[in-house]
Every structure is written in C-alpha cells, then in structure tokens.
Design goal:
Layout: H1 2-5, H2 11-16, E1 27-34, E2 37-42, E3 45-51, H3 53-58, E4 71-75, E5 84-88, E6 94-98, E7 106-111, E8 115-121, H4 128-141, E9 144-150, H5 158-169, E10 174-176, H6 185-190, E11 197-201, H7 208-216, E12 241-244, E13 250-253, H8 266-272, H9 274-280, H10 297-303, H11 309-357
Parallel strand pairs: 3-5, 8-9, 8-11, 9-10, 11-13
Antiparallel strand pairs: 1-2, 1-4, 2-3, 4-5, 6-7, 12-13
C-alpha cells in the first residue's frame, strides 16, 4: 500500500476496503474526468477507465458516480484499455455545490479532500458574503478550510482586509499572498504535507492556477488576464484535475465559480456563524427561524446592536437556501422512487406478456 499512500491513501480508507484484505491492484484514485472517461492512478501507475453499466445507468444523481478525488475499485479487462470502475469507496469528505437555476442539481467539486483553499483576490474580487458562503460549504464538507487573499499587492490596506476576513472566519487561518514576488506562498506550502490533498476554490481570475504553478515550481496550469473594470477573469481551468506537487502533496484545481449554491449546509452553517448559533440556544422555540417568532434571542441581540446586521441577513439567506434545497431534494427522491416503481411495473408487464405468448 506504500504506492497508494503517496496518492492520499490512509488507514481510514484501508479499514473500509474489503475489511483490509483487498488487493491493492484493484484500487485507484480518480485524478480527472474528461467527457465520461476517467483518468485514474493506482499502485501500477496512471491509466484510463470506463464506468460499469451499474454505475452508469443506476446513478440517481451525480453523487452516485465517481468524481475527482474518489477512491474506486477497478476490474481489468482483456487489455489495458478496458479497465472498468465497478464501485466507489466511502468518501471521507465531500465538497459540492448546487447549480444555478430552479433545479438546483448537486454538482460535486472534489472528494476526500483534506484542505479547502478559499481564494479571493484583493483586486476587487473580495466579498464578505461570498466568503461566508464558501466557509459554510468547506466546513460542511468535513475538510479544513484556509482563506487565501491573493493579489495583496493590489490592495491599499491588506492588513485591514486580513483582520476582516479573520473576524468572519472564526479560527480559520487567513493568508495574504502576492504571487508576483512570492510573498505568502511559503505559508501555503507549509500546509501541504506529503499525502495531503488540497482543493482550490474561488472565482475566475483570482489567481488559483498561478498559485498552483508557484507551488509546483513549473507552469502546469494555464493562466489568463483579468478585466480591469470589474476584476473578473476568464476560465483558464476548464475541468477539475489532480496535480502532484514536488513536496508530495496533492492539489485539485477547479474552474472558476461565478455562483456557489449551498448544498447541505448543516453543521457548517452553525460553525461559520457561532455567535448566532450560541444565541439560538436561548430562543423560546427550539425550531425558531430567527425571522419573526416572539422570544427570539437572536433578534433581541440584533436590536441591541450585539449582532452585525450584515451577518444576520447573510445567515438568514443561507439558512433559507439550505432549507429550500432540502425540500427540492426530498421531492426529487420521491419522483425517483415513483419512476423506479413505474419502470419495474412496466418490465413486469413485459415479462408477463412474453410468458403468455409461450
């Protein structure tokens, strides 16, 4: 299993892998997904694979199929070009978001990530409310978040931005980075121990790919310019892919995200808004929405100036978004169950008709 440890394998995965008695040759990690074909790396090196029909046809949603960072079980075919993925090992962490639009389908970002680097540019991209949203998702994923404030050379008062971000992050480390002279890059590199998997998230043009290149010591990712009028960049990363750094760590660079809908905020919401979560324990009703109920300790603190109005509004928005998403998921589950029952009934009628003709 030594070759797998360099890919991020740990005792956690070993214990869930066939009771620790499986063959290492049947395990690999997903490093990229391109048009339905998966690029994997295992003890024997890198190769491509296709999904088994059970995974391809039986998936209820995108989470039922492999994603970058997953550990999968593979079955070799008659040739090296016929490797099949036939199962996905349990995920230790999962970072995902909801897509834009009324459907709000879940869109996986990466699995089995140890660190989530939330990158925001100080050239006009920084936004407190967006930072809170990323922090909720990162915490809920099970990974450890770190905030990177890139392009610190373009900010008139970087120190003030760092203080503000630290106040919003509640214990999460905030690192200002200037990719031009390398300031702050060493601090990021220190967090990347051998076998650690990190994922970069943020808007287009914030410097994710530039930072990855600095960490790799080579131009492994394409980079692009940013529009001066609105600090918006173009997508230079077109798909999620795993890169292996000289220090032994693993990074996953992702395409820029203009929108980041919450998926299952859960404990991540309370962890990101601890002042509100603590006050909520004193509300008269245990299911208080903190919007209109009498005896709401959160609203009382807000009226007394003890809760920041911007934080309060952000909390309510994210909580409502999470609740609405949960309702949509429940409806989708019911529809999927009905669809399966309908298909089973149709298949049964076909079988009965066939038997009747014999």
């Amino acid at each position: 299993m030594d070759e797998l440890k360099a890919l991020g394998w740990s005792d956690w995965f070993f214990e869930g892998f066939a009771g620790g008695t499986g063959d290492a040759g049947t395990v690999a990690r997903v490093t990229a997904e391109l048009r339905g074909e998966y690029r994997l790396r295992g003890a024997g090196g890198e190769f491509t694979a296709q999904l088994a029909p059970r995974l391809r046809k039986g998936a209820a949603d995108r989470l039922d199929r492999p994603m970058v960072g997953d550990w999968v079980l593979v079955e070799p075919g008659t040739s090296s070009a016929e490797v099949t993925i036939h199962d996905i090992l349990p995920r230790r962490t999962l970072l995902a978001r909801r897509g834009a639009g009324g459907g709000g389908e879940v869109q996986p970002i990466a699995a089995n990530v140890d660190l989530v680097f939330i990158v925001m540019g100080l050239d006009g991209n920084y936004n407190a409310r967006r930072l809170e949203r990323f922090l909720v998702a990162a915490r809920e994923s099970g990974a450890e978040p770190m905030v990177i404030l890139s392009k610190s050379d373009l900010c008139a008062d970087t120190a003030a931005r760092v203080v503000e971000a630290e106040a919003l992050s509640h214990g999460v480390r905030v690192v200002p980075v200037n990719s031009l002279d390398g300031d702050g890059v060493a601090v990021v590199r220190e967090a990347l121990a051998p076998g650690v998997t990190a994922c970069f998230v943020g808007s287009s043009g914030v410097g994710k790919s530039t930072l990855v290149n600095l960490l790799a010591g080579a131009d492994v990712m394409a980079t692009g310019a940013v529009r001066e009028r609105d600090a918006k960049g173009r997508h230079t990363t077109t798909h999620r892919q795993m890169l292996f750094l000289p220090c032994g760590a693993i990074v996953i660079d992702t395409p820029g995200m203009r929108e980041f809908g919450l998926w299952q905020a859960g404990e991540g919401l309370d962890a990101s808004f601890p002042e509100i979560a603590q006050l909520a324990q004193q509300c008269r009703f245990h299911d208080c929405s903190h919007a209109h109920e009498p005896g709401c300790a959160v609203r009382d603190a807000l009226a007394a100036g003890e809760v920041d109005p911007g934080r309060y509004a952000s909390y309510l928005k994210l909580r409502k978004e999470d609740e609405e998403g949960a309702v949509r998921d429940e409806v989708a589950i019911r529809q999927e169950r009905k669809g399966k029952k309908r298909r089973i009934a149709m298949d049964l009628r076909v079988v009965l008709r066939t038997k009747g003709k014999k």
